[in-house]
Specification:
This protein is α/β, with parallel strands linked by helices. The protein is built from eleven helices and six strands.
Length: 228
């Protein structure tokens, strides 16, 4: 197996990288939202968060999530209580499971001596519930949110905030994410990067390429030499 240079700190994106969004898609479908429309919810809220950051503003993930859900559910509302439907979907989001490969990979990376943190555009509380529910919260040193950074990823300042809090250097930190835009942002901020591609997606040619690409977290753990 290919070996990579050890990272002092492994930084994980949370939403979709660690969490499995399938239950949200199922609940939206149960509420009458077409699959294609349901799949637009998360990218749309990210778009709006990015737009606010580009405009020099910021808003909490939960507010954008609810706002976009209102729009997504409005056309399928029928006899639904729209506010109640939004809260039902948000409750599913707040209780998502991790992807099946996450516990093994996280434990292996922690056992190898890496410092593990998260850096999410969502709240630290969401990461707390996700990782606690999976029984791996104790593997993470810190759960970081851009709410403290003041800007959303992929703005450079968001990654600089993580570097500063961890007391490390960009080149000694490895950003792991399933989103190419996150990989690109981290690379521009000087971090090393690993694209977690669980499917057969193609990486966009207009973004900085990842330093590594893996199909699962155990694969990444197997590539990283243990701390001696």
């Amino acid at each position: 197996m290919e070996r990579i240079e050890r990272a002092e700190v492994v930084v994980f994106d949370v939403n979709e990288t660690l969490s499995d969004m399938a239950p949200v898609m199922r609940r939206l479908a149960e509420l009458g939202v077409p699959e294609a429309t349901g799949r637009l919810w998360f990218p749309t809220l990210l778009r709006d968060g990015f737009a606010l950051t580009a405009a020099g503003a910021s808003e909490r993930f939960s507010i954008l999530a609810r706002g976009v859900l209102h729009s997504v559910l409005a056309d399928a509302a029928g006899e639904l209580d729209l506010d109640q439907a939004v809260e039902e979907v948000m409750e599913v989001f707040l209780t998502l499971p991790v992807h099946p490969d996450v516990p093994e990979g996280v434990r292996a990376l922690a056992a190898g001596g890496a410092r593990l943190v998260t850096l999410s555009n969502g709240s630290a509380e969401v990461a707390e519930r996700l990782l606690g529910g999976a029984g791996i919260r104790d593997c993470f040193e810190r759960l970081l949110s851009v709410e403290e950074a003041g800007v959303w990823k992929p703005a450079r300042e968001a990654y600089a905030y993580a570097v500063r809090v961890c007391g490390s250097e960009p080149a000694r930190m490895l950003m792991v994410a399933s989103h190419p835009w996150d990989i690109d942002g981290a690379a521009r901020a000087g971090l090393r990067t690993c694209w977690l591609n669980r499917g057969d997606a193609q990486y966009p040619v207009y973004f900085h390429p990842p330093d590594q690409t893996v199909g699962s977290l155990p694969q990444l753990a197997g590539m990283m030499p243990p701390l001696k």
